[in-house]
Amino acid sequence: MYLGQIHTGAEAVQYFSKGTEVMLKAIDKQVQEVSSMGAAALPSESPITAKDVSVAFCSIAEIFFTDLCMEEGAAERCKEAIEKALHYDQSNPEALQLMASYLFSIEKPEEGRDYLIKSVSSWLPSRQKEEESSASSEQPDEDDEERVQSNIPPYESRITTAKLLIEVEEFEMATDVLEGLLEEDDEVVQVWYLLGWSYYLQVDKPGSAEDSESLKKSARIYLTKAKKLYMKLRCEDAPMLEHTEQLLGELGGELVADDEGDEAGPSIDDIGDDFIQSSEDEEDDDAMEH
């Protein structure tokens, strides 16, 4: 499996495929040992699980989504890998999200949306609380909490989750995902940008929970923060900066602290202008270094 991670394209697929074969044989061996020895069978130090196999098939599917997407038969092999991933772990959030992405790519948005919601619902804290409150009053046991925690995808994967949720207009859930990411790391420009973009898309949407002006204000705040952080970190994503500036132009420009008034909502104060190093500051720093 390690060789699959350090290679790309067809070579990576070969290594991951070989890895799945080895893992499946190991699982069969584990089952045989338990069957023959019963409770006396000693478990391996790190037993292979069906979830491990599912994750490996997800890695194969990802490659056909990216490196090998233009290869003949890539779509079919991608779908096959996702189906195998779900076969070995039907609740794997990564596999569910990959199936959602695949269905979106073949223009089946409603089916894709169902898979996406199922994926997010398995790990998003706000969804877990809803399920707990609608279920019995029994306290969730530690095993359930550990399972939910282990289901939380990596940071970058959750950014992709938010993009997909915005695409299917699940704005509230997208906001929950993005705000959770900010709690972990509030210096990722794309997260601020996506929050601003999400609020912007709701401005003229009928039936929005907030009024148009509140949505505009929130969009301006998040997009302003995205631009300031972009400058601070000296990012190199010109299209994102261009789109951010375009949206801010439509919304009335960057929002400064004095413009906020007493209205509720996120504050611009968290990211100030003082951290944006000017060209003169850079020259001074260079001079000091010499």
Automatic annotation (TrEMBL):
<dbReference type="GO" id="GO:0048264">
    <property type="term" value="P:determination of ventral identity"/>
</dbReference>
<feature type="compositionally biased region" description="Acidic residues">
    <location>
        <begin position="279"/>
        <end position="290"/>
    </location>
</feature>
<protein>
    <recommendedName>
        <fullName>Assembly chaperone of rpl4</fullName>
    </recommendedName>
</protein>
<dbReference type="GO" id="GO:0035091">
    <property type="term" value="F:phosphatidylinositol binding"/>
</dbReference>
<feature type="region of interest" description="Disordered">
    <location>
        <begin position="251"/>
        <end position="290"/>
    </location>
</feature>
<dbReference type="GO" id="GO:0016020">
    <property type="term" value="C:membrane"/>
</dbReference>
<dbReference type="InterPro" id="IPR011990">
    <property type="entry name" value="TPR-like_helical_dom_sf"/>
</dbReference>
<feature type="region of interest" description="Disordered">
    <location>
        <begin position="128"/>
        <end position="153"/>
    </location>
</feature>
